[in-house]
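Re: [ENG-882] Designed sequences occasionally contain unexpected residues at chain ends

Forwarding the minimal case from QA. Structure tokens:
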């Protein structure tokens, strides 16, 4: 089987749009932030949309669904817990479900916190995961519907994926996340290097290559509450990991 083609691009102001294309022509949009932009990318690639996989119900991830579905009659897959809030949903999924699209297996993970029904789509054979607004490059999503312990549990699931797994995120916030991370771990050389790369993103069209789980574990402070330097910085040497994470998230909210 030919490798899965994955194409990602800026959509709206700072959303990422993602298209995958399998050898048999199966073409999937991960979320649909804006129908016109997704359609333009489909046209540029010469691909025909067959499916939309939705990570969560927020409008900046679902605004393009109705128009794209009307044009392509594509199948919309989304989280069972948010099915009533997602337009045009055909198949509702939850943790433990598996979807096979174009011969490529997809595992569904429940990753609530940003929203209560947020899901992640993990493709183990292709070494990719579509994480929506749970994880960002050097960052994580705001906790809007869940709580810090819930969000930490979701982040922990993603952190346990194979280190080579590439993470396709829902937004481009690299520079802001890098700058915050350096206030917590200023001596982290991997984070320093990623911060320099983030400074150059505008020159490359604002599209950052997806980071791997392994790279995030080395440089994303939200995945590092167990690290002594992080705990020392926060003055939380003996607290549970999720409480350290909660303090990090609160500080980022005010950054």
């Amino acid at each position: 089987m030919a490798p899965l083609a994955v194409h990602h691009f800026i959509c709206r102001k700072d959303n990422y749009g993602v298209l995958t294309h399998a050898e048999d022509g199966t073409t999937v949009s991960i979320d649909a932030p804006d129908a016109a932009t997704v359609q333009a990318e489909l046209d540029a690639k010469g691909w025909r949309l067959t499916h939309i996989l939705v990570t969560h119900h927020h409008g900046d991830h679902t605004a393009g669904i109705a128009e794209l579905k009307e044009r392509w009659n594509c199948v919309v897959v989304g989280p069972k817990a948010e099915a009533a809030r997602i337009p045009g949903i055909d198949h509702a999924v939850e943790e433990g479900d598996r979807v096979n699209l174009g011969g490529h297996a997809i595992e569904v993970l429940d990753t609530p916190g940003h929203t209560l029904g947020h899901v992640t789509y993990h493709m183990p054979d292709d070494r990719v995961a579509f994480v929506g607004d749970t994880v960002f490059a050097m960052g994580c999503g705001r906790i809007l519907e869940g709580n810090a312990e819930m969000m930490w549990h979701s982040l922990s699931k993603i952190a346990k994926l194979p280190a080579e797994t590439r993470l396709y995120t829902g937004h481009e916030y690299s520079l802001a996340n890098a700058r915050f991370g350096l206030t917590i771990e200023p001596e982290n050389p991997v984070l320093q290097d990623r911060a320099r790369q983030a400074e150059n993103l505008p020159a490359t069209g604002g599209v950052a290559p997806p980071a791997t789980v392994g790279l995030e574990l080395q440089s994303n402070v939200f995945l590092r509450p167990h690290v002594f330097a992080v705990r020392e910085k926060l003055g939380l040497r003996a607290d549970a990991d999720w409480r350290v994470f909660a303090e990090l998230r609160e500080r980022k909210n005010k950054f």
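QA comment: On inspection the terminal residues look reasonable. The first strand starts at residue 5 and ends at 11. Proposing we downgrade this to a documentation issue.
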